[in-house]
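Revision sheet: structure tokens.
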Amino acid sequence: MQQFIDVVLPIPLEKLFTYAISQEEAEFLRPGMRVAVPFGKSKIYTALVHHLHASPPLAYDPKEIHQILGEQPLVNSIQLQHWHWIAKYYMCTLGEVFRSAVPSAFLLESETLILKNDRVAVDEMNLKDDEFLIYEALQHQSSLKVHEVSAIVERKNVLPILNRLIEKNVILLKEELYEQYKPKLVRFVKLADAHTSEKDLENLLQSLTRAPKQSQVILSLFQLNASQEKPIKVTELERASGGSKAVIKSLVDKGVLEEYFIRTDRVTYDDGQGGHEVKTLNPYQEEALTAIKNSFESEKVTLLRGVTSSGKTEVYVKLIEQCISRGKQALYLLPEIALTTQLIGRLQEYFGAKVSVYHSKYSIQERVEVWNNVLENKQKAQVVIGARSALFLPFLHLGLIIIDEEHEGSFKQFDPAPRYHARDAAIVLGNLHKANVLLGSATPSIESFYNVAKGKYGYAEITRRYGDVVMPDIELVDIKEQTRKKRMKGHFSERLMEEITTTLEEGLQVILFQNRRGYAPIVECTTCGHSPQCPNCDVSLTYHQYRKQLRCHYCGYHMALQESCQACGSPTLDTKGFGTEQVEQEIGQLFPDAKVGRMDLDTTRGKHGYEKIITAFEQQELDILVGTQMLTKGLDFRNVNLVGIMNADSLLNFPDYRAHERAFQLLTQVAGRAGRTKKRGKVIIQSYNPYHQILKQVSTHSYDEMFKEQLYEREQYKYPPINKIIKITLKHKEYNKLNEAAEWFSKSLRNVFGGSVLGPEYPPVARIRNQYLKNIIVKINQDQSLPKTKNSIRRIEKSFKSISFYRSVRVIYNVDHI
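Predicted:
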């Protein structure tokens, strides 16, 4: 009886595809295993087995699979359930979730190889110049790849040339699969068995008297063997004997030494031995821990609200300890990679080598190793710390999920699909695994706190800082008044200057926060008012002084800073606004003796970029740290006494219904970096409008007041958490076609949903990478069915796509848009 499998392909197509398999393959294959399958005319993809069955597809003749990849399932059944939920809820395809969830090394790619056809005699006179170049290259190489052909003929589109060569029977095409992941093998050496007895060894050393370097290698090997039990690496032997690789190789060739390879993980943490006693919790932490446990017993997601520096991490550690003692795995999600650097050290003190880390700054190879360790439930992957992508790891026995700083916008994926929110997806994952879920934050999101108010979530709080340290003193400075009285030094008010001076004199550290990287967001000609714009996006270019460059932060376009205005030729160029680079430069001039560091996307590009800056600041090698919102998230610096917020207005005056909530969270979090030990910290907030309601609430630490106010506004204007929101973005390179398409789409939506459709409207940046954008927002009432609403939108999209004029317009869904 013929057997079939349905597979998930890593491409954005709605349905599963059916392939034919033999009886032997059917007995071997299981859901979650990888298979290479042909798709389309010549492409081969890595697909995931979804399920096996015996019913052939009706619409097409199923092809046979190409080969089976791997002997064990890569993905388990709970993961597949979770992926289905993500695809359905966030209105994307299962293939997009598959591509996003799995490290790309597991997705074998096919590469088209161009081979010479040896069976045919080629008449070189019949070949055109570009064809002859390829033919000649194949005389010297067995095969060429498409990009190599492109380089030879110096053209991007080489398919027409290749087609002509195929017609003339000059070349053949072959699809080759290549695996991207290669295990790391370390070379070790040992003495060959023939020389292990004392007598043989004596003879060996005698025979090597004329080769002093070789005999030195043998003696060093003995010393190393005597001093350590473990196998000896070739590099170790080189160091100890002072011999070169060539000397060791000649001993291997002679059969005196034997070399062998051991597979090792690329990421190992040797420093954390673990076993440290968890700090004793103070009464407030104990109380919170008891409340969390009680809430877990009634199987509720629980929110822990603890003021900044209240010791939430110690509570998490207690919960992780109890979780792994039951033989379960724990997942600790963080919004920023910057935070993992500090946390790894802290968790290793307690759990040693049981800690694994998973995020995008790790190489593909390293991510594959963590994936395999979690899949095999290894000891070294009992506690996984990671950014949002760690959610997709193949957990078998997940017992606890901690989502720290749960209010953070970085938990939401924007591009590409799936546009999921890690906090919400983690709650669903916890449900599937019957695991406990804990959300932690000093400034919870309005949605989470609303769920607590409704009794949907459990709640625990820590109201005092650890060690009874007083909350920082927050002072608002009116820079409009200061500028009028000419008391500003650059972008620094008199008050901020005084406090920085005092703090540095006391040997303490300062953090300065400016939520904009670069030197200045705008370069403007003071003669004609022209400012350089990005050719691909509707934004002005940001000036980066350290590279003397103008850069676009949306598409990456950059150009050298011009000496004169491109419009009128006048050399009168001036900058407007300021970013972290300018703050760093100014503070360096005002305090020449202070050591200043900067932490933003430009200085943390490398794999260990975060680590270097955070470690330098922790070890007090820097006096002042200037940074963007990376600084605000849960970092623990013991010696910081002053935090300066350069300009709070840029956070408040933002076209977004969440702007005030975000400003409150960001300012409270950054203020929380000050005075985390005995001395009371100081926070200076500079603003042109110090009487703004949100700034007053930040200075009096009144979260509840902010929550009530924001909730009232959201109720009035029907925004989350009262209503659900789906943002539909239409994208096309032609301005007029996009306008027509957006009108058609929004009218169809209004016919179904009436007044709860907003738009179509251009976003603040209406063109990115030469594509125009238009947004439509659909608000969904609490009593309205979310799945039915999504189905209606999907039906409208199908009608939209059936109009050939609109087919090229891209439709993007963002559910629970943040």
